[in-house]
Structure to design on (291 residues):
């Protein structure tokens, strides 16, 4: 039972880590905490479902969703987030929450609020190891996290685009002086976050059934993950997501008063505790103010 909960927690945590990576990329690139990231992932899942309904195979449908989400992310940054970032923190929160509602209701209008069957790209079935059942779906989710994590690491550390992103994040004024177009870097960060979030949305939809509000719980757990790991740390998002996923499953199984009904309270408790003990997270950078 214990090891089964660990495996299930890693599977759930991989989804939170993917969504957390998207949140981190937006925050690193533009300083915005995107509360609509889950709804953007949900929209990507609907795009994949629609492309598949038109006759395309699931692999092609997923690629279409990832590509479309990249463009949607850049468009949101250019038309919405860039203007909001010039205002106060409260302005950013209100705008991204408004975007959350707009995407949610638009998806319901276009595809209705009825639950749709989403089979996904992974086959059904499980692989049993030592009495622990590992579904092919879980292996696919963890594999997607590994691919996205390694790809993101190589992008940030080995390419000119990645170096420009790091420079624009750490010192935007100096980056602008050496010719880096910080506005384009911000757009690319949002597009990249949209694509990573699309992977999360497409991979989690077969578990939750496709409907406009399916990502709300995952978004809460993802914010718990980046709170644990640090809002500016991709590695922290991955480790935080896995820790949150495992904690959720263990608490729901072994803490009687939590069970399945109060599992949604686990990420909220984690967020509060981490903000009290270590506000920057495990791998986040502490802000320093000099007099």
């Amino acid at each position: 039972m214990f090891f089964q909960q660990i495996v299930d927690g890693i599977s759930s945590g991989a989804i939170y880590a993917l969504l957390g990576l998207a949140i981190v990329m937006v925050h690193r690139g533009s300083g915005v905490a995107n509360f609509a990231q889950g709804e953007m992932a949900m929209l990507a899942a609907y795009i994949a479902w629609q492309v598949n309904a038109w006759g395309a195979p699931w692999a092609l449908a997923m690629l279409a969703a990832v590509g479309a989400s990249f463009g949607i992310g850049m468009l949101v940054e250019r038309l919405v987030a860039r203007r909001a970032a010039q205002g106060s923190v409260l302005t950013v929160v209100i705008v991204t929450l408004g975007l959350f509602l707009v995407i949610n209701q638009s998806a319901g209008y276009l595809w209705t609020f009825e639950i749709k069957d989403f089979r996904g790209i992974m086959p059904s079935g499980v692989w049993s190891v030592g009495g622990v059942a590992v579904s092919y779906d879980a292996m696919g989710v963890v594999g997607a996290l590994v691919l996205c994590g390694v790809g993101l690491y190589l992008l940030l550390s080995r390419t000119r685009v990645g170096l420009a992103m790091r420079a624009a994040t750490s010192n935007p004024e100096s980056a602008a002086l050496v010719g880096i177009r910080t506005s384009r870097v911000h757009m690319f960060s949002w597009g990249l976050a949209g694509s990573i979030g699309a992977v999360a949305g497409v991979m989690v939809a077969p578990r939750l059934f496709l409907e406009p509000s399916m990502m709300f719980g995952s978004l809460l757990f993802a914010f718990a993950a980046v709170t644990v790991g640090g809002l500016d740390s991709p590695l922290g998002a991955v480790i935080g997501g896995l820790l949150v996923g495992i904690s959720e499953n263990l608490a729901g199984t072994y803490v009687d008063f939590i069970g399945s009904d109060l599992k949604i309270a686990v990420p909220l408790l984690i967020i509060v505790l981490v903000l009290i003990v270590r506000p920057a997270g495990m791998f986040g950078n502490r802000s320093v103010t000099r007099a």
Q: What stands out?
A: The two ends are 55 Å apart (CA to CA). DSSP finds eleven helices and two strands in the chain. The domain at 2-277 is CATH 1.10.3470 (ABC transporter involved in vitamin B12 uptake, BtuC).
